[in-house]
Every structure is written in structure tokens, then in C-alpha cells.
């Protein structure tokens, strides 16, 4: 297996618009390296007429998007714990971190280091932990290094993460941790891939729900079915007296879901255990799988399984 030298990501000399991740190219017949052309995967929509034909990702049965138009609502934590819950329910699962600028999956999954490259296909090989395969831009750059790229480079890197990862076995579910917003990444993924469904994560306060509605509108516009809403940081339960407090108001997600004829998949509490375990790289579903919090994520996973 080949190894990606990190210098590819620390100097512009090695970066090309058609191959920003610096992956080697192989001649399909001779197994020899060839100059990167960037033409083997579906192309990002730029100036061509019409929309690209939607593709399947090899070895992936279902693609689930976890999205939030607002940042900081706990989307990546929901992504990881939902994926791990799917794994506990007997499904083969992968996580793809589509946030090029702010990847969170490596820390949450307690993974680091550079991915290897397949000697036969030239594709990235996922890093795995807790029985789940993962791929992230966070494996390709140092923690303190910022990715300062214009849109074309970002979109091409996203394309490589989508189509140039060699998932080692057939995945029942690939859970994609989307970046916040409703921009280029969201549009490109919706146009390039056949998506099974999307989960929208929000917190209860109005300022977050306003953006959640934008996310609903976006998925409706691009014809991606919505599995439901997750209200994160829904309430706080006092560890001493078990009193339940709604710090960020209550029932906000229920109201929005009702207005848009959607389901609320779970009301995940605000609990220090979730944050503590996430920082340790041992998510709550792994650390305490029978806890009430883990059961919330299990409900989300069951909704995903029952959706199609």
C-alpha cells in the first residue's frame, strides 16, 4: 500500500485543481502510475448544460445525510452516535466527513494518522474504529493546519472523497456528516449522488430553527427525502434531583416538524456525558450503550432502517 506524504497538503506546489488530494493515478490495464486526469469520477457541475447523472458510490447500499444549516448544533456528534447505533443494530456502516474546512470525525472517532492508498486502485483506504469505517479531510492535514482553498479546489476534493475511497466491504449505510449551510457542498452532493434520505439536526431555540427550515426547504427543492428532525440539546436533567429543565425553550422542533409534515426522530438531552465522551474519542453509544442517551441515538438509527 502507498502512503500519502503530508507535504502534499502543506505546499501549493503539489496541489492541482483536478487532484487536490494528490492521489496517484493507475493505468487500469498495466497497474502503472499515470498522470492524474481527474476524469474517472463523475464531474462536479460547473458550466456544463444540464445536471450530471446521479451515481452510486461503489460498495455502498444507502447514503444518509446528516445536515444542519446552522453550525454548532451538535450535528457531527449525532452523525457519529447514529452510525455507531446502526452498527450495534447489525448493519455495516461507514462515515464520510464532508466538512472540508472543519472536519470533526477524526477526534470523535479517536482516529488519527494518514490513510493508506490501495496499490491496485489508487484509492484512499478508510480508517476504522468501533467497527465503523471512516474517511475525513482531517486525516490528510495536521490539526493546526487550515485548509485555505477556493471553491473549485474544495469541490474537487469533495469529489475525490466521494468517489475515490475504497470501502473495504459492502456498506449497508454510508452516513455523511455534512458541513453547515446550504451551499456548494450540499448542492453538489445532491446532484451527484443517489441519496436514501436526510436527517436535519437543530437545537430548540428559534435562531437555530430558522436555519433548520432553510435546510428542509433545500432538501425539498433538490428532491431528497427527509427522514426527520433531531432536536439536540433538547432539555437538561439535573443529576441530583432528576428535574427536567428546558434551557433553550421546548417543543420547537415539534412545531417545525408539524408545519412541514415531518417526524421528530429524537429529543437528545443536553448532558455533559455526551461532550465528555466525545472529547475522549469514545462516543456515548460506545461508552454507555444502555444509557437513556444512547437509546435516543438508537431511535434515530431505527428510523433510518425503517425509512426505506
UniProtKB/TrEMBL annotation:
Listed A to Z, the keywords are: ATP-binding, Iron, Iron-sulfur, Metal-binding, Nucleotide-binding
Tell me which Gene3D superfamilies the record gives.
P-loop containing nucleotide triphosphate hydrolases
**So which domain of life are we looking at?**
Eukaryota
> What's an example Gene Ontology biological process for this entry?
mitochondrial respiratory chain complex I assembly
Cellular component GO terms held in the UniProt record:
mitochondrion
InterPro entries cross-referenced by the UniProt entry: Mrp/NBP35_ATP-bd, NUBPL-like, P-loop_NTPase, YlxH/NBP35
Keyword Lipid biosynthesis appears in the UniProt entry: no
- Molecular function via GO: 4 iron, 4 sulfur cluster binding; ATP binding; ATP-dependent FeS chaperone activity; metal ion binding
- In the UniProt record, does the keyword Metal-binding occur? yes
Record PANTHER family: IRON-SULFUR PROTEIN NUBPL (PTHR42961:SF2)
Which protein family is it in?
Answer: Belongs to the Mrp/NBP35 ATP-binding proteins family.
Name of the featured protein: Iron-sulfur protein IND1
Native source organism of the sequence: Lodderomyces elongisporus (strain ATCC 11503 / CBS 2605 / JCM 1781 / NBRC 1676 / NRRL YB-4239) (Yeast)
